[in-house]
Amino acid sequence: MAELHKGLEGVIAAETKVSSIIDSQLTYAGYDIDDLAENALFEEVVFLLWNYRLPTKDELNKLQEKLYEYAKLDQKVYEHFEDYATDDVHPMTALRTSVSYIAHFDENAESETDEEKLERAIRIQAKMASLVTSFERVRQGKEPVYPKQGLCYAANFLYMLRGEEPTDIEVEAFNKALVLHADHELNASAFTARCAVSSLSDMYSGIVAAVGSLKGPLHGGANERVMNMLSEIHSVDEVEPYIDNKLKNKEKIMGFGHRVYKDGDPRAKYLKTMSKKITDETGQKHLYDISVAIEDLMKERTGIIANVDFYSATVYHSMDIPHDLFTPIFAVSRSAGWLAHIFEQYRDNRIMRPRAQYIGETNRKYLPIEER
Questions:
Q1: Which reaction(s) does its UniProt entry say it catalyses (predicted)?
Q2: CB-based burial of residue 303 (10 Å sphere; 0-12 exposed, 13-18 middle, 19+ buried)?
């Protein structure tokens, strides 16, 4: 038997051209995340992850047109939300169900040509935003808002969520968040997606599986937990006793540390900057100040540095996005990476079949039920 690696830490399970993390630096298909965060539209990143190159102007325009065209859901899907769009159902649970449901309306859900797979991926990416925003609208007792032609993906998400066009700073912040979350090498949900389709299951099954993996607080659910923490701290003066009490009780402080980054998460600085800008614009500067105080104290007390989840929480909150939508937004972005990994798995597939080290009892004999 091979050596046991709990959590598969340090185990290389796939080859990829999608993204890399080398010496604490994240790249997408060879492009530094700093370069992309400062310059790229999310749609450009989608194309990059799927094709390992940036699109031409014509290719970008065609992708944007298709993302707009495919964003509208079948009317039965909108009606379907009415069955479970309540505060008792977590939006990630709803997303997991609805991604599976939209497969029923895709006539080519099982087709296998490369061209059909690409069109299916565009449909899925387009509809992810509509699923999250429509669920929230129905949950509020409002009519879903259809996408608006001419808006970029980030702007359309906010438009469909709120029914009004977002400000420039909101679009900038949300686009950066989508870019920064689009992929992250072989994380838990990307690995789950690859495992699911390694049996040659369909693309929708891979995305449903990935959504289920992302739902957990140790993965995508972290930023929602960050906002819950910030909601309990009302001023900078409360930060030190709050954090010290958490550390004393050995409670996990969400939004800090990362298994693959030893020198800090390279994505965090961009959302920290956007957090400052957007909290200033919306009159919620105290949230940024509290966040900085927590970050400084955690570095002083533990040496652990904030990750991308920490400041994304205040960015989303400042745009008046419900806290339990933070993880579904992560899924909207990360779908681009999941689909890229699914493409790779299909192209060079071997079914995932690791081994387990048995630690239970041995040499046991069956006894008739009367003798047990």
A1: oxaloacetate + acetyl-CoA + H2O = citrate + CoA + H(+)
A2: exposed
Cα 125 to its chain centre, rounded Å, is: 12
Other beta carbons within 10 Å of 297: 17
DSSP states along 258-299: -TT-SS--TTHHHHHHHHHHHHHHTT-HHHHHHHHHHHHHHH
Tokens of 339: 């689909």
What's the half-sphere exposure (Cβ side, CA atoms, 13 Å) at 46? 29
Choice among 80, 258, 317, 341 that is catalytic: 258
184-212, pLDDT tens digit by residue? 999 999 999 999 999 999 999 999 999 99
The CA distance from 90 to 371, in Å, is: 47
Catalytic annotation present for 87: no
Cα torsion 180, 186, 192, 195: sign: positive
Give me the numbers of helices (H) and strands (E) for the chain, helices first please.
Answer: 16, 3
- Angstrom distance (rounded) from CA 150 to CA 140: 26
Specify whether the CB–CB gap between 66 and 122 falls below 8 A. Answer: yes
Identify whether 258 is a catalytic site residue: yes
The pLDDT tens digits for 151-166 are 999 999 999 999 999 9
Phi, psi angles (nearest 5°) of residue 329: -65, -40
Residue type, 198: S
pTM: 0.91
CA-to-CA distance for 336 and 341, rounded, in angstroms? 9
Structure tokens at 63: 């992708």
CB distance 279 to 288 below 8 Å: yes
